[in-house]
Design goal:
This protein has 92 residues and is mainly beta. It is 5% helix and 25% strand.
């Protein structure tokens, strides 16, 4: 992956309304993203900088991670493997 394209704008985290549904529309905006030195692993921290909830409360939620087509490989090709999901690729 192209290191400069792995950011909180291209790797997003959403909290689901419950653990039994797939409706995950609340974006966690303070979830920091880091990339390994070799560019092979991106880590998104669901706990972010939140001080209002404890780690235990946050760990009881269901989340959905979304990697957008703004993420690119080293040749500059956008990540877009599912043509029916224009603009983003979802990893649940």
């Amino acid at each position: 992956m192209k290191v400069s394209t792995i950011t909180s704008d291209t790797f997003k985290l959403y909290r689901c309304s419950s653990t039994k549904v797939s409706s995950c529309t609340t974006q966690i905006t303070n979830a920091p993203v880091s990339l390994s030195a070799d560019g092979r692993t991106a880590t998104l921290d669901p706990y972010g900088t939140s001080t209002s909830l404890t780690s235990l409360q946050l760990s009881k939620n269901k989340y959905k991670a979304v990697v957008t087509t703004g993420a690119q490989d080293v040749a500059g090709n956008p990540l877009d493997q599912v043509s029916s999901t224009a603009g983003k690729q979802e990893m649940v």
